[in-house]
Amino acid sequence: MAVTPFAGIILLFNLLAAPSLAAQAPVPAFHLERTISLTGVTGKFDHFAFDPAGDRLFAAATGNHSVEVIDLKNDKVEQSITGLDKPHGLAWAAAASSIYVADGSLAELRVYKGNPFALAGKIKLSDDADDMVYDEARHLLFVGHGGSDAANPAKVAMVDAGNFRIVANLSVATHPEALDIDPASHRVFANIAASSEVAVIDAAAKVVTAHWKLTRAADNVPLAFDSEHRILFVACRTPGTLIALDAMTGKELASLPAAGGADDLFYDSALRRVYLISGTGEVDAYQVDKANALHSLGSLKTASGAKTALFVPSQSLLYVGVPGVAEHPAEIRVYSTVAP
C-alpha cells in the first residue's frame, strides 16, 4: 500500500511513543569546538547573522546596546556598532555588503555599510521592531514590529532592500515573533505568538493569505522550515511543545514535548535534524532517519540565559550566545554538529 508523504510524517511522530525508542540512550548531537570571548560585552543576546564571504558573525548584543561584528578567522571582535538601544533582528545582504538591524526601542530598521560599518539609512517602524527574514532573490526584507497597543498595531513590513523603502506594511493579529521563508514560493511564515497562530504572507501579491491557528499549544515563538519535505516546525512555550505543520495547508501533523522558554529553532537539512534553543539554557536535538522515524538526541546544557543562536549549515556549526555578567564577559560558544 502506498504511503503519502504526510502520512509518513505522522508515522514519524507516532513512533516517539514507542517504548523501544524511549528506552534508547540519547546520542550526543554536538561537541564544543571553541569559545569566543567578547571582552567588555555584557547582557543578553538576541538574533544573529552570518557573512559567508567575510567569515563574520553579527551578534545583536541587546543587553549591551550594540551589534558585535566578530571576525571568525581570528575569533575577535572586529567592530562594535553602537548608538543602538535594543537591537533584535539582523539580516546580512551579501550583494549590497550591508547589515540590517531592527531596533525594538528605537522602533527603527537601520542599515549599515562600509568598512568599518557606518549608518547608511533608517526607516521608522512601530515599537518592538523584532525578527526579520531576507528574501535574497527578490531583495526583500520582512520585519515584524508593533502590537503593544492600538497606536502601534502589529505589522510585518516588506522593505525593498535595494531602495531601502517600505513597499507594504501587512497587518497581523498581534506582535510577530520569528519569521522564516520558503524560497521556492516566496511565502513568508510569521509566528504570531499571543494569538497562537502562524500568518502566511504571499510576497509576490503583498498580502497575508492564511492564518493557521494552533490547537496543541500556545505562545509560539521560534519556527524553522524544511523545504524538501514541506514541513514547518513551530516551538511553543505554553506548554513546551514542538509542533510539525503541513507547510502547504497548516494542518497540525504531530507534536511532542520540548524544553520550556523556546526562543530559536533551526532545521539541519544535511543531517535531517531539528535544533531547539531555549531560555532554560539548553539545546534539544532531534534526528529524522531514512525511514522517517524521529529520535531524540538528548539535550545539550549550555548556560543560564543562553536563549538564542545561529546554525550555519555550510559550516555545520551552531553559534550559541552566552550572556555577559559583571564577573564574566559575554561569549559565543561554537558547537560542531558533526563528529570530530
Plain-language structure description:
With 340 residues, this protein is mainly beta. The chain is 4% helix and 53% strand. The chain contains two helices and 28 strands. The chain has helices spanning 5-14, 19-22, and strands at residues 31-38, 48-51, 56-61, 66-71, 76-81, 87-93, 98-103, 108-113, 118-124, 132-135, 140-145, 155-160, 165-171, 176-182, 187-192, 197-202, 207-213, 218-226, 231-238, 240-246, 252-257, 262-268, 273-278, 282-288, 294-301, 309-312, 317-322, 330-336.
Q: Which regions are unreliable across 5 or more consecutive residues at pLDDT < 50?
A: 1-27
The total number of structural domains is 2
Number of helices: 2
CATH topology of the largest domain: Methylamine Dehydrogenase, Chain H
Keywords, please?
340 residues, mainly beta, Methylamine Dehydrogenase, Chain H, four-stranded antiparallel sheet, 28 strands, 53% strand, globular, disordered N terminus
